[in-house]
Specification:
binds adenosine monophosphate, D-amino Acid Aminotransferase, Chain A, domain 1, Dna Ligase, domain 1, Rossmann fold, 22 strands, five-stranded parallel beta sheet, alpha+beta, binds glycine
Length: 419
């Protein structure tokens, strides 16, 4: 089959790497892709958020299956347009993708489903938001309702921070995304991500992962899109996973189904675990990045079969044969990220021939005059498997240390919580 992947980050490189190994895959395209993806797929210049461009490309190239990586095309309704044109598509509808695109939508969904999550209030004006914070006290969490590129959430430990976050939202710091604010109870505990495939009915939990969101070692510094991750995350025991499926994910999927907007795709549940109790922090309508690198490294070519089963509504029959292994991914970012950083700096990668347990996935790279250069904030993700977390981690850092890129930085402590 001919397959098109939308997106161009580390997540999409991992998807392309896994899918390209499956014998069902004939031609593989990725839009827009990046320099690493270009090694396993044909990169295409088109705007992945423009449904008519995507559908026109699919028609011209006899595409059989489309995999949507990032949230923006989902929120823009690209999955709906593709399905309307008869293309098998992995990725939820615009209506179902609201679980990520609107925090208020998800809070309401949890109310209706009886799913355990933080207490909250919604507000469309600064005065009522300030009043609610004054009443609740700190710590408290202020969230812009819409998609804000991961920047719309403030965990406010004191009153001044909470006030500033509210004013930022209503002063337009996040554009339309901040026109409504969700104010949440601060939840303590350990965060873990659970990835669940669903075709709207059946659920296939994939694996747990834990992400390191802060820029620097020891979980210090600014929040990022994720500086590294490991899977499985021991904090999410089988019992806790089942409890989260029974009391949070399952009931929410049921409500979406009953509303006539079933969620089909991968539901990424961000959970807070405290004293054996899972609570929902957020949903995303896509694979995490870099968590996807771990899942693809561990699943390999099987990934295509299960993504197809989701798109065909046939997930109840699908299985993944998991190796009893662990994976670690270490992100290399440009110095300055998540603030300002340089692009176009040369990178030299080691030759990994004969080292099948480790991959370098490209997140933000380009090729310039035959030379690999940096082209984003998060640039590479070294992803390794091993029989233990320690083995996977040592293997990943062994390769990180062989990458020649003076303009980059990375964390040295990925996985510390589980070791
Ligand atoms: P979100 O975009 O909703 O995942 O929020 C980003 C991050 O903020 C989460 O990964 C948590 O670390 C933190 N966070 C969000 N909501 C809460 C909450 N209610 N209590 C504690 N931390 C939170
Ligand atoms: N790594 C977190 C995310 O993809 O949202």
């Amino acid at each position: 089959m001919n397959i098109l992947i939308l997106g161009g980050g580390g997540r999409e490189h991992a998807l392309a790497w896994a899918i390209s190994q499956n014998p069902k895959c004939d031609r593989l395209f990725c839009a827009p892709g990046n320099a690493g993806i270009a090694e396993v797929a044909e990169c295409v210049r088109l705007n992945p958020e423009d449904a008519s461009e995507v559908c026109a490309f699919a028609a011209e190239h006899a595409i059989d299956f489309v995999v949507i990586g990032p949230e923006a095309p989902l929120a823009a309704g690209v999955a709906d347009a593709l399905r309307a044109d008869g293309y098998l598509t992995f990725g939820p509808s615009q209506a179902a993708a609201q679980v990520e695109a609107s925090k208020a939508f998800t809070k309401q969904l949890c109310d209706e489903a009886g799913a355990d999550t933080a207490r909250y209030a919604r507000s469309t004006d600064a005065a009522s938001a300030h009043a609610y914070v004054a009443e609740q006290g700190t710590p408290i969490v202020i969230k812009a309702d819409g998609l804000a590129a991961g920047k719309g959430v403030t965990v406010a430990m004191d009153d001044a921070t909470a006030r500033a976050a509210i004013d930022d939202c209503f002063d337009g710091a996040f554009g339309d995304a901040g026109a409504e604010v969700v104010i949440e109870e601060f939840m303590e505990g350990e965060e873990v991500s659970l990835f669940v495939l669903t075709d709207g009915e059946a659920m296939l939990p994939l694996a747990s992962a834990q992400d390191h969101k802060r820029a620097f070692d020891g979980d210090e510094g600014p929040n990022t899109g994720g500086m590294g991750a490991y899977s499985p995350a021991p904090v999410l025991t089988d019992a806790l996973r089942d409890r989260a499926l029974d009391t949070i994910v399952g009931p929410c999927l049921k409500v979406l189904r009953e509303r006539g907007t079933p969620f089909a795709g991968v539901l990424y549940a961000g959970l807070m675990i405290q004293d054996g109790r899972p609570r929902l922090v957020e949903y995303n309508a896509r694979f995490g990045d870099p968590e996807c690198q771990l899942l693809m490294a561990r699943m390999g070519a099987q990934a295509l079969d299960v993504l197809l089963a989701v798109a065909e509504g046939d997930l109840a029959q699908a299985r993944v044969n998991w190796a009893d292994d662990h994976a670690v991914t270490v992100v290399l970012a440009a110095k300055g990220y998540p603030g300002d950083y340089a692009k176009g700096e040369p990178i030299r990668l080691p030759d990994l021939a004969g080292e099948p347990l480790v991959q370098i996935f490209h997140a933000g790279t380009a090729e310039k005059d035959g030379q690999l250069v940096s082209n984003g904030g998060r640039v590479l993700a070294v992803t390794a498997r091993g029989a233990s977390l320690q083995e996977a981690r040592d293997r990943a850092y062994g390769v990180v240390d062989r990458i020649d890129w003076p303009g980059g930085f990375h964390r040295r402590d990925i996985g510390w919580r589980a070791l």
